Amino acid sequence: MKLVPAWTMMTRNAIFSARNPSHFLEVTALFCILLASGRGARTNTAFVNPQNPRNGLTFTSSFSGTSQHAGRVTVNEENLALPTGSGLYREFSRHAWEKLQSSGLFVQEPVEEECASNTAPARGLPSGSVVQMEVQALRGSLPQVAYARYALLETLKAGNDANVTHHDGIQVLNLVIFPSTTTDLPVFGADFVSLPGGKHLLLLDAQPMTEDVHYEHYWSDWYQSNHISEIFPWGGDMPEAVQRYVSSKALWTRMASSEDNAGEKRNPVIIIQTDLMAAFQAHLEVYIQLLHDYTDLESKDNWSAEYLDYRLTNDPARPMLKSLYGEEWTERVLKTVLFPSP
């Protein structure tokens, strides 16, 4: 199936304008990729997805820069200081990294400096505002776990208030934990995308790598106690082509700021900072526990090699990244950070 960008030239209503939700999700298939750029550059997004009334996603690769530069770019020629404060999902990445680093399952995996971060001017916001991206990685220290990494993209509005949480512009977190390719463990995927105009796409799942999902009961209590179906209405059916990569306990929802959900209890940003944070923390705890409990080290047949090869070979962001940063930088990031060989 040919994968194409599902959202291009991000306008106010682009994300929810698809007339046929089924087709919208099918063309976005297996990826949730957000590309944000500065002057003269386009903003394109393609979405990852799964299928059925419960789906998670796999992974979001997020990059920022200008089309005139390959590699890292600076904020501007005047060397203005970067804005302070944090993006909407900074606390999610901070919490997750602290948990993973203290779990006894990982050791630090250095990311080369050129691939670790990138910054570009943010269009449509006051001068000095930026879109910045950060990537970090951990290497598994036990046989059952291979790799963890996150990509965090934040739009930071110009200012020097270190306590502010920015939620204007594009905000993205993609956190993925890959188990060993010889196990039947699922891939942990947290993919949170917030777009200009108050549109939010939220997916959280333990994605199956085999037909046998004997571990899925781990999330039964999580699903009920966090009121997933009530707080996070199902975001739409997913294509059959990716059904096997989706669990029955996935959180997949779309939210939008509007008069209909005005007020603190229904404000999407408040839901993200409270209910989603609680669900995310608890889901991660369960996944870490599953990794600790897993003792069957006999090699298993699974879909991981096919999954990783397909993702690397068919990543729809590749042409856009090449146009922004050049072929050499793009291939280095894809192969050494986002889809490293097992």
From TrEMBL:
Entry annotated with the keyword Oxidoreductase: yes
Keyword tags: Oxidoreductase
Species for this entry: Phaeodactylum tricornutum (strain CCAP 1055/1)
InterPro entries xrefs: Ferredoxin-dep_bilin_Rdtase (IPR009249)
Record family assignment: Belongs to the HY2 family.
GO BP, one annotated term: phytochromobilin biosynthetic process
Highest taxon, organism lineage: Eukaryota
Name this protein carries in UniProt: Phycoerythrobilin:ferredoxin oxidoreductase
GO molecular function: cobalt ion binding; oxidoreductase activity, acting on the CH-CH group of donors, iron-sulfur protein as acceptor
Keyword set includes Oxidoreductase: yes
